[in-house]
Design goal:
By secondary structure, the chain is mainly alpha-helical. Helix content is 76%, strand content 0%.
């Protein structure tokens, strides 16, 4: 196993132990905020629906990564030989998670738009904090994760080799001019 595997494992642990629990807590606090009761039902119903949808898709992403994506990435690193072990298709898994990330950020954008209306502009502090956390922390950490995987595919020979051999392909070397 190469040094990149250790760094990847550290980032996985950071996401699972720090980033995701913090976002889950902010979601829970925003949804269960007692101050939402001060708003009329018609004002807050769409806001609450968006937060529930965001929570569901975020939970789905976390579960998918925890049970499928992260173990698959580490399996590629740990494979002695891609011919000995059936390796996962990381390209499909990354496309799946990026799709989920996009859907999550669409909910965040819609939630932000609702919060920017006059009824919620100066209130709904926990909901604004939730939007800010996803726009800053989630986006930054997911960019870092996706960039790291891309970098591993481009520069880590053991990772790259196992990914492509697992697909039944030979990695090509791109020569710079």
């Amino acid at each position: 196993m190469c040094k990149h595997a250790d760094q990847t494992e550290e980032l996985i642990q950071h996401l699972l132990e720090n980033v995701y629990p913090c976002l889950e807590l902010k979601l829970q606090n925003a949804i269960n905020c007692v101050f939402l009761n001060e708003y009329q039902e018609d004002e807050k119903s769409y806001l609450v629906e968006l937060m529930h949808n965001l929570r569901n898709d975020f939970s789905s992403l976390v579960t998918c990564e925890q049970k499928l994506v992260f173990p698959s990435v580490m399996k590629v690193f740990n494979a002695k030989s891609a011919k000995e072990v059936a390796l996962p298709n990381l390209f499909d898994l990354m496309q799946l998670t990026r799709s989920k990330e996009h859907k999550i950020m669409t909910y965040v954008h819609n939630l932000s738009s609702v919060l920017d209306t006059n009824g919620f502009k100066n209130g709904a502090i926990k909901q604004h904090d939730l939007v800010d956390s996803f726009n800053c922390n989630f986006k930054k950490e997911k960019y870092r994760w996706n960039k790291m995987i891309e970098d591993r595919l481009n520069s880590c020979s053991c990772f790259r080799s196992n990914v492509f051999k697992g697909l039944g392909l030979e990695p090509t070397v791109v020569e710079s001019k």
